[in-house]
Request: fold
Amino acid sequence: MPANSFNGFTNYGIGLGLRVPHYRHILAKKPVVDWFEIISENFMVDGGRPLEVLDQILEQYRVVQHGVAMYFGSADRLNREHLKKLKRLVKRTNTPWLSDHLCWGSVDGRYTHDLLPMPYTFAAARATAANIRAAQDFLEVPICVENVSSYAEFHASEMSEWEFLSEVVELADCGILLDVNNIYVSSKNHNFDPFEYLNNVPHHRVGQIHIAGHSKFEKYILDTHDHPVLDPVWRLYAHALQLTGKTATLLEWDDHIPTFDEVHHEALKANKFIEKQFETAAA
Amino acid sequence: MASALFRPLTGRDRMQPRWTDGSSMQAIASQFIKPNDRLSSFERLEIYNRVYWFRILDCLYDDYPGLRAIVGQPRFMKLATAYLAKYPSTSFTLRNLGQRLERFLREEPRWIAPHRDLALDMTRFEWAQVAAFDDAAEPAITTDDILDTPPAKLHLGLQPYLSLLKLSYAVDRFFLAVQKRDADVLRDEASNTFEAMPSSSSPKNTVRLPKREDLHVAVHRYDNMLYYKRLEPEAFAILQALRRGVTVEKACAVAISSSTRTRVDWPMQIKEWFNDWSSLGWFCRFKK
Reply:
């Protein structure tokens, strides 16, 4: 299911996160990249250099928006101003779908600027799905929600994370941005089988996949996006592709960012798994 | 959980062991967070508490290198923590994190003593740069657009990204000297983890603090690059009056009448200023 309603019936391949240290290289060298993912909030401004760069990128490349501050899971209602700015950006980029996280991060108008885990309850699933639906209706573009990496679990939870994700996306009728690195990180932090997670989400709703690197500490793993993708994550990615088919894939590298060519090279390793999956499917 | 995250860390960058009422934080955390075989409820909550503070302090650290250089880095970290504890972010973007810093420093000047005025000037100057970087640009007005309107009836707007600052210290030059010393640090919001607090030790090469000196500065952008432009007091007065909605004629008259300078060919001088400002794209349609 490479193209589906959750990614705007597109057939995107391997993309890269658009990051400031690479602007000059990209604009000067115009490397061949299938698509770029932008952090929406970095471009939800009224003018200046960020929008100038974005417009230059849009002349050459396909862009998909990825948000970090919609906070579908917050008890607060969605921020109307945020949505209006986001919609302006959607019109500018023509993003075929947009993504944000299955998390909360604000309370009573105060922002944590973090992607906080939710208690996996039916009530939270209903409230979150209502927010996603409202956003999707307002923005008029398909939304994929991303599973976050987490370091805490709540006593209040009534189901597993993958059950919660499934419940939310079914109720919201939205897509999934499946972050296989996040699944791996959380599986180590919470002692679950990441393959069980992958096997039990609605695969037909997966519109995009994220891969990334992480850091191991003595007692937990942290989702740092500052390393190449590690082998266990590649194994999960390969398994995810078997379940979802060829899916738009993006490498996240947000800290200690190496040269553009190094990041691109790392991202293109995903091709090996995509081709293998394609061969298997053809056979 | 949010209340716990918003509480500042201890001096050793750990979560506070006691809640506001003196009860054990371990007991409170265990009420809603499950422990696992490696981490207690307290330790799991602490990961989020630390990441929250590391992220927002890192952001403020990057946005205020000038203020940091004035008060020193260890004190800056304490000041920033107190500010963010009192005024947590109310915006979806970290860009606005310093929006209320000037207000906070006026309310609690002990954080910037004995350099109160200098630190306030720098805070305004650094916030003006945030605005100049990505605030809106309205379509610029050209000479042709206003040719038919007499100065007595002409109102001109100024670009939203343009800030006009009356300063008591040459913070513009001081800022450039600090910038030259420091390496730029990039901020990115995409990663959801921060592993460490910004360094609280001051750089070894200190930049000499500026002496008191009245000056007027415009912080703006041109071709999407940031610039600081020093203005004559009369030029500053004209621009401020225009921003308030005063007509061009009245703005010029008021500015000249309050000038102490003599032997100035004011018509020629004003023409030069307006040509200059117009070529920088500072004028736009006036909006009430």
Notes: Confidence is low (pLDDT under 50) at residues 184-192 of chain B.
